[in-house]
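Hi X.,

You mentioned you wanted examples for the new student's onboarding notes, showing what a folding record looks like when two proteins sit in one file. Here is a clean example. The first protein comes first, with its sequence line followed by its structure tokens.
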Amino acid sequence: MIYVVIGTKAQLIKMAPVMVALRDQGLAYRYISTGQHRDTTQDILENFGLRGPDHVLYDGPDITAVGPMASWGLRILWRALRRKEEVFGPDPEGLVLVHGDTFSTLLGALMGRAAGLKVGHVESGLRSFRWFHPFPEELTRLLTFRLTAVHFCPGRWAVENLRRYRGEKINVYHNTIKDALHFALESVDTGDVPIPAHPFAIASIHRFENIYSRKALDRVAGTVREVAKQVPMLFILHKVTEKQLRRFGLFETLQNSPGVEFRQRYDYFRFIRLVSHSEFVISDGGSNQEECHYLGKPILLLREVTERQEGLGTNCVLSKYDPDIIREFVRNYQRHAVRPAREDSSPSSLIANHCAKFSR
């Protein structure tokens, strides 16, 4: 059996096309949710026409803060180990698929190894080469690499980063977000998300390093306010970001800033429709970097470093929080628009093909 262990919305978006490929190839899989995120996950499943989880390890509120996440993870791991036959069954030859760099990634890998199964890591080999940037994602990846038997790498660069780690390295050439976008773009003009009549940009900020302190979040809010003076901004309200904005007294200030409009989070297909109509994106998310690469959309990345290569030097500008870099991008963002990538290969299908030997 193939066991797909995921817990966050971003993981679900990137693993949904893998589960579609497994289903379409007639390969049996069991979807196990750690429960790290629940908000909007049903919408994502409906987007891709997938069934809900076969097993849920946690059925409480979303876990977003790093501190509570550690204690939550230990509880979930202990519960899963005590009930591993209920989660995985008596399967000595299965493959546990995990994705990315979240706590759920590491939990799934630890659970799989403890159950005596092989671990397959999707999006394996990405590195920033800075232990604490991004935090805790870089550390999570390093730990997961050591637990992995089959590394599914989104390109040759990722394969090379795994030279010193054991396990089979499979080059699937692209990130599975490419396949997720394919599904979303098929319905890009049929969604009901309101599109402004004027040119606009999108801001999507949620990473720990940008919201953990007032100083960091004030820097982000200041950047959005400055950019909005030139191009109106739709600010996507991630729950954790909204919580921190309110905590530090910045919510109303940003909400009332000229040119800034708050939008609640959308399901994946509606969000991509919004992005496809925007002038550019400001984000700290790796998934947004990848999406904009495949869409050819200009993106300003509010980070010091990125573990991803997609779009760097073309449509993607790494800000390093440098005001001069930010101003230059906004003044000349049109220069960073490129033709959308049109590669034919499907990383999700390649992953499913390799998983066939673990399914019966």
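Then the second protein repeats the pattern, sequence line and then tokens:
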Amino acid sequence: MELIDVVHKLLGPIEPIGESNEDDRRLKNLEATIEVVDRLLCDIGSAAQDADRVEHSMRVIGQRAKQFLADVSTVN
């Protein structure tokens, strides 16, 4: 099982289906998903602060994190 499959299984579906009771559950799933993504983005943001470090391994991680955040910010 892929990591994303495990995450989806833990958080549950978020797409609305037009049935009020199920969509209420899916809204709660969406809120949980947003919280996880927010925390992960904060972690990536912290890593991005190392993009200009002298240490090669830290700089590589920081630059990759910074590039990812730039890519995310251009998505509509």
